[in-house]
């Protein structure tokens, strides 16, 4: 069963680190990408899809104008994958979806929105090794050539030059996980990676339904959120760390000093 509802903080950690033992390495190294959402009903939709309207047709116009007006010194390379990564980072609607290697960062994003504190949250866990076994030959060969598990923007640039070329690699929709360039501490601290689908209209959870062996969805009951949130704060998994700078500091302070609502009976 792919969807699992935890009942305690300890059970959540066990679920997140399930299958993390790597016998070849003799180490506990999970091969999952994680995405935490404050509302379990949220879908794995990109910001491009959420833009609405004729978003698929607007994609190239959005990126073209971003490239036109962005400061060139922000871009470490001139490929479409570099531009997409930077555009996503700064809030442009794109077909990229943000993930993290860190279960604890995913726990943060599932619990940080106190406006959703009384709603069940969720963490998606997708095995990127199994996902990449379904890639077109040219991309699987690139991963094998590099001895890598996830593509970087540089590796992807060497294999595919455009979004149109990506779509043309296969008649079947596929998913690529890639590591964005470390343009600032936020990407580094969040242990970030992204996914991109070959078809801009495709929704990731629809694709996952057809590949049940690559994913799990862990439901976090709203009753657990305050406990998880407090323990993450104690472990220094906060906005102040994940969003370095004054904006992250103010986000953390606002949440940290917001009253607990509704108060738990018995003063706990």
What number of structural domains do the residues give?
1
The strand order across the widest sheet is 1-10-6-4
Computed CA radius of gyration, to the nearest angstrom: 19 Å
Supply the helix-strand structural class. alpha+beta
Q: Summarize model confidence as the mean pLDDT.
A: 92
Distance N terminus to C terminus?
34 Å
Helical content stands at 40-55%
Give the SSE order as H and E letters. EHEEEHHHEHEHHEHHEHEHEHHH
SS field, number of helical segments? 14
Largest sheet: 4 strands, mixed
Number of strands: 10
> Shape from CA axes?
globular
Query: Which runs of at least 5 residues are low in confidence (pLDDT < 50)?
Result: none
**What portion of the residues fall into strands of 2 or more residues?**
15-25%
Written overview of the protein:
The structure is a single chain. The protein has 268 residues and is an alpha+beta fold. The chain has one domain. Helices cover 41% and strands 16% of the residues. The protein is built from 14 helices and ten strands. The strands form three sheets. It has a four-stranded mixed β-sheet with strand order 1-10-6-4. A four-stranded mixed β-sheet has the order 5-9-8-7. It has a two-stranded antiparallel sheet with strand order 2-3. α5 packs across α12. 32% of the residues are buried.
